[in-house]
Amino acid sequence: MPGIGVRYDLTTREQRRLSVVAHRGGTRTLSAYREHDPDACDLSVRLTSGEAATLVDALMPAHHSPNLLSTTDLGLVAERIELSATSHWNGRLLGEARMRTETGMSIVVVLRRAEAIPSPAPDFRPG
Fold first, then answer.
1. Which positions ≥6 away from 74 have C-beta within 8 Å?
2. How far apart are the C-alpha atoms of 88 and 74, rounded to whole Å?
3. Domain named Potassium/proton antiporter subunit KhtT-like N-terminal: which ranges (predicted)?
4. Distance CA 82, CA 94 (A)
5. Cα separation of 48 and 56, whole Å?
6. Between 5 and 63, whose confidence is greater?
7. Can you tell me the distance from the alpha carbon of 97 to that of 65, in angstroms, rounded to the nearest whole number?
8. To 5 degrees, how large is the angle CA 71–CA 63–CA 110?
9. Beta-strand runs (E) in 34-108
10. pTM of the model
């Protein structure tokens, strides 16, 4: 698309046609076309480069950092940090780590096998 950008087309397994126009300025336009009339646009959404990157992370787990779970416009980031069996913190009280005091971060959930432990208290023992 001379002067505009590059267009990428995709036909889904259900024979729905999608396209993304990567504009020269960094924005993207995502379009979905009608099932029975692939030339008629059903939906067209203009995305900033940041919104497009967020959409890619949601759609493409292979491109998504396994440690980075979520980011928002507020600057909040959730990361998954694995505690190894030989970690210095294994078996100690969570409060001993002084995470919020030392780093400004909060532990919002502990994942242990198939169990999620939300808002662990300072007397919680990880590991």
1. none
2. 32
3. 1-62
4. 14
5. 12
6. 5
7. 25
8. 50
9. 41-47, 68-71, 77-79
10. 0.47
- Reported as a single tens digit per residue, the pLDDT across 12-52 is 888 889 999 988 888 899 999 988 887 889 999 999 888 88
Helix (H/G/I), strand (E/B), else coil: 12: coil
Bridge partner list, 5: 23
pLDDT tens string 77-114: 677 777 788 888 888 888 888 888 888 888 888 887 77
- Placement of tokens 């208290």 in the chain: 121
How is residue 38 written in tokens?
């692939």
User: What is the Cα–Cα distance from 37 to 17, expressed in whole angstroms?
Assistant: 10
Nearest one of 44, 39, 10, 9 to 27, comparing CA atoms: 44
Contact 83, 89 (CB under 8 A): yes
Residue linked to tokens 């959409």: 55
With beta carbons less than 8 A apart as the criterion, state whether 22 and 8 touch.
Answer: yes
CA angle 48, 53, 59 (to 5 degrees): 125
Per-residue model confidence (pLDDT) at position 80: 75
